[in-house]
Design a protein that fits this description.
Length: 511
């Protein structure tokens, strides 16, 4: 008896299993062989590059710091859905379905070629084998699912048990391969060369002043621990750069371009300073902001060594993968504005997710124009001749951090008893300092809160308002005044193009 076409459900399942098996193999190879591309990561990175204007803010609004996980899952689901579609296509034309798997492999290889984390030869060989697995597996599964002449194409026919068993087994192999590969990929760097120790700073940060920290349960710590510090960047997989190969080049509109390695960089005089940095995507009341103790080389010292030429108006930081951020050279003119090429964070070498081996820290500017992670190049150019990564995508070219304040205690929607209640949080106007914080209860007058002793104008402060809570539902608002006497505006704007504005407000129930 001859075979007929399998059911549509069986064909879609066959395509999904065949595609998943090839994808799982590719992920496993990526985990086992450094340099081999993960198709999911490579295509995800390509999608980030191709994102339309304002897509960044939409993703951050929806998913926050889970944006990378969501993109990984979206690419994975998309690949499996396309594989199922190719399975359906194979009912009519097997060669078209197999050509589709080849096309997906070519797309993954194209994406990998663009990424410096991946080796072209290894990625190509792994891609060829993974595609071959898919195009060989698909017809074999479909043959097992095809009914004989005179039979109805029923998925649960007794004679189709072999198809179901094979599909389940292959799906399990695909899943386990993919999971093992991703685990190996994420953990491989843990076995890499030990991180060199960072020399002590020649100019250490002064001890925290008395009254710099307020004792309030639930308030954000004055100095945020490294594991708790927010992370927003375009890298789906945390780059793990080897300092043995790392170099920093200073070039462009300079008289004496130079390149130094890690040992030379940390042998220079190191300084420490507390600096609060913030993401421009941070909504009013959001948590994409943090304060840390940074240790590094003065950026000004590196630029003086290179000799800035007349006419250079922009400093561009470039990451190992080509990501860029640029800010005006004039921002460095004030002598007390201490920008750093940072190599340590809170007394430890920079964590990989925060830019190891080196990153830029520039007080007073949002990170998308200044805080280049995994720094490999500092280039001097003009503001007219170059736009950093995010500027063509609709974000402002110049982006000083706005004056902001946030209520941490109590949480919005909380229920509290009547009587004295602490209302507390943090406020920042980086580079200008915070001179006052006020709280408003419902539509009442603005009342002064106690403000902690500032570390410096480059850091946030904590604040505390002692509220005599009365029964009922209440709205609490906060606003800050910066060191120049400018009061935080109540005019509401979204983060694009240069930061969110407005007063943080919460609702609480008393009684």
């Amino acid at each position: 008896m001859t075979e007929r076409q399998p059911s549509r459900v069986a064909a879609a399942l066959a395509g999904l299993v065949a595609g998943g098996l090839g994808l799982g193999f590719a992920e496993l190879v990526a985990g086992l062989l450094p340099g081999a591309a993960s198709p999911v990561l490579a295509i995800g990175s390509l999608l980030i590059t191709l994102q339309p204007p304002n897509a960044k803010q939409l993703v951050v609004d929806l998913f926050g710091t889970a944006d990378k996980l969501v993109l990984n899952l979206a690419v994975l689901v998309g690949a499996l859905v396309l594989s199922a579609v190719l399975g359906l296509l194979a009912r009519r034309r097997m060669v078209w379905a197999q050509a589709g798997f080849v096309g997906l492999g070519v797309l993954a290889l194209f994406a990998a070629v663009r990424d410096p984390l991946f080796d072209l030869v290894l990625s190509g060989l792994a891609g060829v084998v993974s595609v071959a697995i898919s195009i060989i597996t698909l017809p074999r599964i479909l043959r097992a699912a095809a009914p004989r002449n005179g039979e109805e194409p029923r998925m649960l026919d007794f004679d189709r048990r072999r198809f179901l068993g094979s599909s389940v087994a292959l799906a399990g192999a695909a899943l386990s391969s993919g999971v093992i590969g991703r685990v190996l990929l994420e953990n491989r760097a843990a076995a890499s060369a030990a991180v060199p120790s960072i020399p002590d700073a020649s100019a250490t940060a002064a001890p925290l002043p008395a009254g710099a920290e307020l004792s309030v349960d639930g308030i954000t710590p004055l100095v945020v621990r490294n594991p708790d510090f927010y992370r927003i960047d375009t890298s789906l997989l945390t780059p793990r750069l080897d300092v043995a190969d790392w170099r920093l080049t200073v070039d462009g509109m300079v008289d004496r371009p130079f390149t130094i390695d890690y040992a030379e960089l940390v042998a220079m005089p190191l300084v420490e300073s507390y600096v609060t940095i913030a993401c421009v995507s941070n909504e009013v009341g959001g948590n994409l902001v943090g304060n840390a103790l940074w240790r590094g080389v003065r950026l000004r010292e590196l630029l003086e060594r290179a000799g800035i030429q007349d006419g250079a108006t922009q400093v561009v930081g470039r990451s190992f993968d080509g990501w860029t951020a640029g800010f005006p050279t004039a921002w460095l003119d004030p002598p007390d504005r201490e920008a750093l090429v940072a190599v340590a964070m809170n007394g430890e070498p920079l964590p990989p997710e925060h830019g190891y081996p080196a990153r830029l820290i520039v007080p007073g500017l949002y990170g998308y124009v200044s805080a280049t992670k995994w720094l490999t190049n500092i280039q001097l150019t003009t503001l007219e001749d170059f736009d950093g990564y995010w500027v063509p995508l609709g974000w402002a070219k110049e982006a000083p951090i706005l004056t902001q304040s946030r209520i941490d205690v109590p949480r919005s929607g909380a229920s509290v008893p009547e009587g004295p209640q602490p209302v507390a949080g943090v406020a920042w106007a980086v580079d200008r300092g915070v001179s006052a914080v006020e709280v408003q209860v419902d539509d009442g007058p603005w009342q002064a809160a106690d403000v902690s002793a500032p570390i410096s104008d480059a850091t946030w402060v904590q604040w505390l308002f002692r509220w005599e809570a009365t029964s009922g539902s209440h709205t609490l608002r906060v606003r800050a005044t910066d060191g120049d006497g400018e009061v935080q505006t109540d005019q509401v704007t979204r983060p694009p193009p240069d930061g969110a504005r407005g007063h943080h407000a919460i609702q609480v129930n008393v009684g």
